[in-house]
Specification:
alpha/beta, 7-stranded mixed sheet, about 45% helix, binds pyridoxal-5'-phosphate
Length: about 500
């Protein structure tokens, strides 16, 4: 098309406002858009992600309205919807940021303000980077030295059980690792289509990834009356049911749990491993909250450690992928997108396929890899940054523990709200009693009852939560998910506002 034709065509589009319709101009045929809602990938349309859904979109809009001076019954929106630690005011660990700053701008290695241990870590990381720069691509599986450091970290964590750096893959956060593993697992058509067992309530990454891959979601329900524990008989029920229409191949566990905040006992993990072995299921253990344990008597047990302590019958047989991330725990460095996966008993030929698959995307972000390295290789007792590091880590985890207790205590005082102990992770998933009148009004508005509740809470108080329906819940029960991340004083305000709102809501609809 000549330039003048192009100009006239654009003008015609603007004039007629028919962008997308077939039209002819000087003999040129222009077609409808190729990519439309009718032609696009239907699996993508099925994807849902409540954590950033309509409530959050409305929250952003309200923030804009407040800035424009529109009067509301509150002066700020408090986002307690997402596990984004730093966005909620959590401070980064000084040592991590020092090493990252040095890696990003190596001239600072000459600066006497930086401690020697941070400099030596940065120097070591840079030596392992292409051209000594954080800006170079790395190998697709992740920088070898960092994978070795991760392997040593896992060995320390698991009481000496060996870890092969070749079984470690670095990713753009744990999300990328989980989706990649699911990609490998999904195959077949009809009855032979892969089914993947996920907990309900679940972290919606799982349901979204399964929808995108057109895999079959097999829901097993956590036991709310028993602190969201996992019951093997429920796993068995869900599996038997699913075998009628798909081929179950994988079982996903989130421990500590999101959104439910439970920490699994060692006994439960053993039972899950026995179940997976008996039913020939590939285990996926999402352990991104492994340092976030608050409740007395609760302890983190990695699936890898338990598997190996159960003896060769299991440790040589059960296939396991476990996941960790820089986004959670005391680090909360979500934006760096650092994560890793350890695979155990993966078929060597499949491993070649996995390595091929990750190499298509070149490599995970190198700053995220560098951050992972300092997380697994923090200051040691004889190093200058040790005391500050320990203090910052302890204070951050202690503050989260305090907020976990405060949240469950205050919410349990509110008539119509029932909350399990927040044993770990960063969330509470309380059950809310909604009167029939409220449920009816929600239906009239075309909303789920808990969406109706959360939307009303947002409009009246400025507090942004996620409706339980976005995570899955038993029919006829309603919940919301709230993070415990806001600073203590702000969290108190949030809880007081929820209490007041709930009382008013019950009066209005009873
Ligand atoms: C259970 C669980 N798994 C995985 C992720 C994703 O972590 P990342 O930021 O490393 O992708 C999250 C994030 O909230 C999570 O809660």
């Amino acid at each position: 098309m000549t330039k003048s034709n192009q100009k006239r065509f654009t003008q015609a589009i603007i004039r007629k406002g028919i962008y997308g319709d077939t039209m002819t101009e000087n003999g040129c045929q222009y077609r409808e858009r190729v990519l439309t809602m009718d032609t696009m990938n239907p699996n993508v349309k099925r994807v849902e992600y409540a954590v950033r859904g309509p409530i959050v979109q409305r929250a952003v809009q309200i923030e804009r309205e407040l800035k424009m001076g529109i009067k509301k019954p509150f002066t700020e929106v408090i986002k307690a919807n997402i596990g984004d630690c730093h966005a909620m005011g959590q401070k980064p660990i000084t040592f991590f940021r020092q090493v990252l700053a040095l890696c990003a701008y190596p001239d600072l290695l000459e600066d006497s303000k930086f401690p020697e241990d941070a400099k030596s870590r940065a120097h070591r990381i840079l030596q392992a980077c292409g051209g000594g720069s954080l800006g170079a691509y790395s190998t697709s599986q992740g920088i070898e030295m960092i994978r070795q450091d991760i392997a040593r970290y896992i060995e320390r964590r698991d009481g000496g059980i060996t870890c092969d750096p070749d079984n470690i893959y670095l990713f753009t956060g744990a999300s990328d690792a989980i989706v990649t593993m699911l990609k490998l697992l999904v195959s077949g058509e009809g009855m032979s289509r892969t089914g993947v067992m996920i907990s309900i309530p679940q972290y919606p990454l799982y349901s979204a990834a399964l929808a995108e891959l057109a895999a079959v979601q097999i829901s097993y329900y956590l036991d709310e009356d028993n602190c969201w524990s996992l019951d093997i008989s429920e796993l068995r029920r869900a599996l038997q049911e699913a075998k009628k229409h798909c081929s179950p191949r994988a079982l996903c566990i989130i421990n500590p749990g999101n959104p439910t905040g439970q920490v699994q006992s060692r006994q439960c993990i053993e039972d899950v491993i026995r179940f997976a072995a008996a039913e020939k299921l590939f285990l996926m253990a999402d352990e991104v909250y492994q340092d976030n344990i608050y409740a007395d008597g609760c302890k983190f047990h990695s699936f890898k450690k338990v598997l190996f302590e159960m003896g060769l019958e299991y440790s040589e047989k059960v296939e396991l992928a476990s996941f960790h991330s820089t986004s959670k725990c005391y680090m909360g460095e979500c934006g760096f997108r650092g994560g890793y996966m350890e695979v155990v008993n993966l078929d060597p030929e499949v491993k070649v396929q996995l390595t091929k698959l990750v190499s298509v995307r070149l490599c995970p972000p190198v700053p995220g890899q560098a951050l992972l390295d300092v997380v697994v290789n923090p200051p040691q007792p004889d190093e200058p940054s040790y005391d500050t590091f320990i203090k910052e880590r302890t204070d951050t985890l202690a503050a989260l523990g305090e907020k976990a207790n405060m949240t469950q205590e205050i919410l349990n005082q509110v008539p119509g709200i029932k909350c399990n102990p927040v044993q770990g992770a960063m969330y509470t998933f309380p059950r809310i009693h909604l009167p029939p009148k409220a449920i009816l009004e929600a239906k009239e508005k075309g909303q789920t009852p808990d969406m109706f509740y959360c939307m009303k809470l947002l409009e009246e108080t400025g507090i942004c939560l996620v409706p339980g329906s976005g995570f899955g819940q038993r029919d006829g029960t309603y919940h919301f998910r709230m993070t415990i991340l806001p600073p203590k004083e702000k969290l108190k305000i949030v809880l007081a506002k929820i209490k007041e709102f709930q009382q008013h809501f019950m009066e209005q609809y009873s």
